[in-house]
Write a structure and sequence with these properties.
The structure is a homodimer of 332-residue chains. Chain A has 332 residues and is of the alpha/beta class. Chain A has eleven helices and twelve strands. The longest helix of chain A has 17 residues. The interface between A and B is large, with 53 and 53 residues. Chain A binds a DNA duplex (30 and 30 nucleotides) through α2 and α4.
Chain lengths: 332, 332
Amino acid sequence: MAATLHDVARLAGVSFKTVSNVVNDYPHVRPSTRQRVLDAIAQLGYQPNLSARSLRSGRNGAISLAVPELRLPYFAELADEVIRAAERRGLVVLIEQTNRDRQREVDLLTSARLRMVDGLLFSPLGMTAEDVGLLEIDLPMVLLGERLFHPTVDHVMIQNVETARAATRYLLERGRRRIAVVGVHPGEVIGSAGLRLRGYREALEEAGIAVDERLFGPAELWYRHQGAEAAQQLMQSGVEFDAVFALNDTLALGAMHALITAGRKVPEDVAVVGFDNTDDGQYSQPALTTIDPGRREIAESAVAALVRRIADRDLPVQHVPVGWSLVERASS
Amino acid sequence: MAATLHDVARLAGVSFKTVSNVVNDYPHVRPSTRQRVLDAIAQLGYQPNLSARSLRSGRNGAISLAVPELRLPYFAELADEVIRAAERRGLVVLIEQTNRDRQREVDLLTSARLRMVDGLLFSPLGMTAEDVGLLEIDLPMVLLGERLFHPTVDHVMIQNVETARAATRYLLERGRRRIAVVGVHPGEVIGSAGLRLRGYREALEEAGIAVDERLFGPAELWYRHQGAEAAQQLMQSGVEFDAVFALNDTLALGAMHALITAGRKVPEDVAVVGFDNTDDGQYSQPALTTIDPGRREIAESAVAALVRRIADRDLPVQHVPVGWSLVERASS
DNA sequence: GACACGATTTACAACGTTGTGAACGGCATC
DNA sequence: GATGCCGTTCACAACGTTGTAAATCGTGTC
């Protein structure tokens, strides 16, 4: 069906290897020969067979991005940026969804599908500290987030603790004293939830305010729905609060919706701060104050780190920190 | 590095072809031999080389999904569903972003990267009627949306006209008479914008109401920001309106934000209806009435149609309609 | 015990590419 | 005119798999 090097060679009257040399910009090709080959390529619409090239070269020109779910705006925007960063380097991105499921994450790491790509960007959510050993796979990999630590695996680190501390401190500085937290995962310590909660605790301690666990709104999943539910339960519980720190924007928007529906004024009665700076917080009603974790930089750094790792497997471990900022809007 | 059929064969004491037969569940393998081979596979952690398999078989086990931008919630959720539908069929999804750019869409169709996949799901936005001929590519392809018609290309069709007519009729039935439209692309006829606007016109005509073009809020891009701007301009223009039909949810949320910020009550003063039923409309303040175009069904049908086309290139053209519904919420 | 006939296993040739090294050609040098 | 050199071209052998067809094995039949 499709033309091969041999077809082009026949048409141009050269050996197929010369065509290969032209395609790969091998220097020692006579200009006239090169032109004849290029003409033949154009005439036949030749395009190299990537499977054959991969087989021969061991490179695929593709990387995988494994995220919990694309429908969560944070990951959609992250994927968007990763695809752009990869494209700048001539790489194509294949997306895997793990649905926050530990088993799916574990299976992914040994999946035969990974043999289709040169490297993996992995944003784990479900794996636990005990699974850390499973991260020692043969494929170049860069972890995204602060979820799992492994001494020998590359990592682009979101500053979960530091940023959460800043968000909490910001609310304290504006006079809020009863700050509820939405999205808590009880007992969890090393995940985004655990780390952000730690930042919250640290800020309160700094300010000499005792942590009141009645202000914790647990939410296993971080969708709008769970945010709304958590806020409702906080209100029903009768505990007083003048601010909500939601552990991501999606939760924040759900919580804000529930608060306003229940007649609380945002930010007058309750200030709301989110985390992620996704697009949807910018035009919510009111617009959402949030932490910008530097998503574009995360994507760019992660792809860059992965490309380095693919090029040199013996590189020292890369732990890349990422800049962040607090985005102040109307909800606080 | 990685084990091959030959390595396994050596360990199991059989020819490499027998190993291949075991891997491919070829029936005539003695149970004892099979077991010996399976043990060797397990011991070496053998996984087939997918490039070699592709080269030999001509199949890649991957499809591409080309969308304008993943950061638009509609496409993120679509991609999510497509990945799930593909996974059910053992296919992996590679995502291309065209950024709504005509040139990028055109380039994509002849891109060498497409040789990495068995088929393409393509949601074109920038291509014009003149580019339609470019859709005749050698690769199995299914178009998503109602944007481009081509007599010989498979198509999963969103019912743009019909649904927009229903949305408008719904507003008319609730007594609204001055319905603004946000997201209009002036002069455009065959795109989502043009078709949805046509549905709007038809509903007004049915009701015997003249179309007032002062109620059109143009917006080339369909982000929240443009929705907000369009609403602001409508308000500044002084034209009266008691409803907004936004051509997608993202625009609707932006418009709603602008309306509320300007002191208009939604839905009392202005009813707002969107299009797409993305997750973010569900917990906006107020929650957004919208058209559900059947995204999950679109994804499922599209992948199914693509798989059929890959299996049989001589199949008659597939034009698959998709069911839809109107989701009533607090904004109207 | 030879023969036939499945069941099982194997050898070999692709698939289309790139890397290696050898062959070829022309030109300058002596 | 032979020698050497460099620029150019080519032959061949991988890469790891699957399809085809042939070889081998085992069992039942006469």
